[in-house]
Design goal:
The protein contains 16 helices and 10 strands. The chain is mainly alpha-helical. The strands form 5 sheets. Strands 1-2 form a two-stranded antiparallel ribbon. It has a two-stranded antiparallel ribbon with strand order 3-4. Strands 5-6 form a two-stranded antiparallel ribbon. The longest helix is centred in the C-terminal third of the chain and has 36 residues. The two termini are about 40 Å apart. The mean pLDDT is about 90.
Length: about 500
């Protein structure tokens, strides 16, 4: 088949298959993300702390699992099979989320919850965690495989692909948020599930356009017997299904997630320190040191940024007048602001960096990280400022929340695009894979840390009871004021040491 038959609108047809698959997968993911905490606290009457614990365990695990899924695909499965398997698990997980059961009630001072429905809910989360682990890292890798190393279209192809992510996130948060909070939680979660079904169908019928670039590198390994009656391929699927059972229980025991993350973090840090001291020359040592600093900085940023699904969601629900431009939005719909601002601002940042680069004024990677963290802190400053101007009912205008989302998004655009690039450029070649895994694990750790931070402002009232708006505003404002100083302080510290870090990067931009 000629090259023209493999292309459409100047790009490989496989790009559009990946675009549509990822768009619908992100539709399903974000369609439930901003509903999750509200569903637990409003429908099952979880306390803030209980709901945040579930959110933290889920978010940490869902960001950690792609390390394993990507490794299995690289060595054995190939990306195509990993995406299909992950998509099937995701479909089941999102559809399972639509089983809401009976609403929790208070009986003689005790809360009676539908435990069977909650167990289905927890198992559905475990399906999503494993599904994301197999699909998320590999669909992105396929896009890169569609272009040759010197193909100038690669960057624009990834731009199209990432636009699909944000279109899916934006539309899902608006639609699923509306359905879930207005018509019923199962409608919101169900719509997210339908989105995943569409994405899986598109990939299944469009996989022929991947030109064989997503197949296993050593197909013979998959046929080798590993377990009695199971070859290696089916052993991997079986292992993933068995992992569901462990994750099902782990989500309900957040302290074990915390122990695991802390233990893993300590082991990785100690191992890297040993490697840097014992196995690196002076140039490598400097670059690895910078990479470790940037990784720690990313934990600070994402712990602040991910308040959007935690404390900022509860804040929007309890103390924000959600009427904007004459339209009253649901709480979860404010999550659509991030992908909206990314779509609006990303082209502007691309032009800005290009213009500064031509004048040799483009900030170094450490400076971009510092600017990102400072803007995350300033986002909370907007909420602190807005708290000084409540209306007659004690609520804060939605405009302040919009400004906070804008600042968080511009911070993300400074830090996120250069993160993985920094790993690939600064890591010693023999440990690039390990450092990529460390980067994703750092993100997982920051997700768990984010909910621990959010718990500092949890309400002490009984679940399901009316909250005092003034007390809630005071509690959240105190937390946001602390995060303002943490973000700006950490960012300015990184800014101060950025010349030192740049020097130890030894020419890497």
């Amino acid at each position: 088949m000629t090259r023209q038959h493999h292309e459409w609108l100047g790009h490989p047809k496989g790009l559009y298959v990946c675009f549509a698959t990822e768009m619908w997968e992100r539709f399903s993911f974000y369609g439930m993300k901003y509903l999750l905490l509200l569903y637990l606290t409003k429908y099952h009457l979880f306390s803030d702390a209980m709901g945040l614990d579930v959110l933290g365990s889920y978010a940490a695990l869902v960001y950690a699992m792609p390390v394993i899924g990507g490794l299995l695909a690289d060595r054995y499965l190939g990306m195509r099979k990993a995406v299909i398997f992950g998509g099937c698990l995701l479909t089941l997980g999102h559809l399972g989320m639509a089983v809401e059961g009976t609403q929790a009630i208070r009986v003689n001072g005790d809360i009676v919850r539908d435990q069977a429905a909650l167990q289905i809910f927890y198992f559905s989360l475990s399906l999503i965690i494993v599904g994301v682990g197999f699909l998320k890292p590999n669909i992105s890798t396929i896009v890169g495989r569609l272009y040759g190393e010197q193909d100038s279209r690669r960057d624009s192809g990834y731009t199209i692909f990432y636009m699909g992510i944000n279109i899916g996130a934006f539309s899902a948060t608006l639609l699923c948020g509306y359905l879930g909070e207005t018509l019923g939680w199962h409608y919101g979660f169900g719509a997210a599930g339908v989105g995943m079904v569409i994405g899986l169908v598109i990939f299944f019928f469009g996989q022929r356009h991947l030109q064989g670039l997503a197949e296993p590198s050593h197909p013979g390994l998959l046929k080798q017997p590993v377990l009695p009656g199971f070859n290696r391929e089916w052993s991997i699927y079986l292992g993933a299904l068995l992992a569901l059972v462990g994750l099902w229980q782990l989500i309900q025991a957040h302290q074990w997630v915390q122990y695991s993350l802390n233990g893993l973090a300590i082991a990785v840090v100690l191992g890297l320190i040993w490697f840097i001291v014992a196995r690196c020359d002076s140039v490598e040592r400097g670059r690895m040191f910078v990479l470790m600093v940037l990784t720690f900085a990313s934990v600070v940023f994402w712990a602040l940024f991910e308040q959007t699904a935690a404390s900022m969601t509860l804040y929007a629900d309890r103390v924000v007048d959600r009427t904007l431009l004459g339209i009253t939005f649901n709480t979860s719909q404010f999550g659509a602001l991030n992908p909206l601002f990314i779509m609006l601002c990303a082209p502007l940042f691309a032009v800005l960096w290009r213009m500064l680069g031509k004048r040799h004024l483009e900030p170094s990677t450490p400076v971009k990280f510092a600017l990102g963290i400072i803007q995350a802190g300033l986002g909370f400053g907007a909420l602190v400022l807005g708290a000084n101007f409540p209306d007659e009912t004690g609520k804060v205008a939605a405009l302040w929340l919009v400004l906070a989302y804008l600042l968080h998004t511009t911070g993300e655009l400074c830090l996120s695009p250069v993160g993985l690039s920094a790993v690939s450029k600064l890591a010693v070649s023999k440990v690039v894979g390990l450092m990529m895994g460390t980067w994703f694990l750092a993100t997982a750790y920051s997700e768990f840390l984010a909910v621990q931070i959010a718990k500092l402002a949890h309400m002490d009232s009984e679940p399901g009871q009316m909250l005092n708006t003034a007390e809630a505003l005071s509690s959240y404002t105190e937390l946001f004021n602390d995060l303002l100083f943490v973000g700006c302080g950490a960012g300015f510290l990184l800014l101060i040491i950025s010349p030192l870090l740049k020097r130890h990067m030894h020419g890497v931009s």
